[in-house]
């Protein structure tokens, strides 16, 4: 994982990073990143293939988030949708798919929604900081809705 305590600009090219869970190496998206004093990275530039690869998974993740947040969608149907997206991710990046599966399989729907929303925010921060701001504003509301619906159904 890359971190910066003082902030600054870093250019990354042909780097690999170890997965914090499994230790397998995975390529880091090439580009120029600005790190703020909290260590948060914002992409200033990245090759088109990097952005395109991230954009390709944004829509399926948005669909999953929408379905998970919709109380009219049954839990088993939501689980199938998540699994289909994980299978799609496996074709692009097996390590990311494995991490998503481990973070969502058998977990409560609210936790799965939180994982998917976190992925969307992270991808949005790289692809388009504006998208990340819009999505981040909806995270709390979407998660609160799921918790409220769960609480109401258990009362």
Can you give a write-up of this model?
The chain has 155 residues and is an alpha+beta fold. 62% of the residues lie in helices and 14% in strands. The strands form 2 sheets. It has a 3-stranded antiparallel beta sheet. The longest helix is centred in the C-terminal third of the chain and has 26 residues, at 129-154. It starts with 7 loop residues before the first strand and ends with a helix. The model has no long low-confidence stretch (mean pLDDT 76).
Topology record:
Layout: E1 8-12, E2 16-18, E3 25-27, E4 31-35, E5 41-45, H1 48-69, H2 75-92, H3 94-104, H4 109-127, H5 129-154
Antiparallel strand pairs: 1-4, 2-3, 4-5
Helix content: 55-70%
Shape designation: globular
Class by alpha and beta content = alpha+beta
Number of strands: 5
What key phrases describe this protein's structure?
62% helix; single chain; globular; 155 residues; alpha+beta; 3-stranded antiparallel β-sheet
Quick recap of the structure?
The chain is of the alpha+beta class. Helices cover 62% and strands 14% of the residues. The strands form two sheets. A three-stranded antiparallel sheet has the order 1-4-5. Strands 2-3 form a two-stranded antiparallel sheet.
């Amino acid at each position: 994982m890359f971190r910066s305590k003082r902030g600054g600009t870093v250019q990354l090219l042909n780097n690999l990073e170890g997965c914090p869970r499994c230790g397998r190496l995975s390529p880091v998206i090439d580009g120029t990143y600005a790190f703020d004093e909290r260590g948060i990275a914002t992409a200033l530039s990245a090759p088109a293939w990097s952005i395109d690869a991230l954009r390709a998974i944004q829509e399926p993740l948005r669909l999953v988030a929408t379905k998970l947040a919709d109380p009219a969608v049954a839990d088993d149907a939501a689980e199938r949708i998540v699994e289909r997206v994980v299978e799609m991710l496996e074709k692009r990046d097996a390590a990311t798919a494995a991490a998503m599966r481990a973070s969502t399989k058998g977990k409560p729907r609210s936790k799965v929604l939180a994982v998917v929303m976190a992925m969307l925010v992270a991808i949005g921060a790289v692809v388009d900081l504006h998208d990340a701001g819009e999505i981040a504003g909806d995270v709390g509301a979407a998660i609160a809705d799921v918790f409220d619906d769960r609480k109401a159904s258990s009362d």
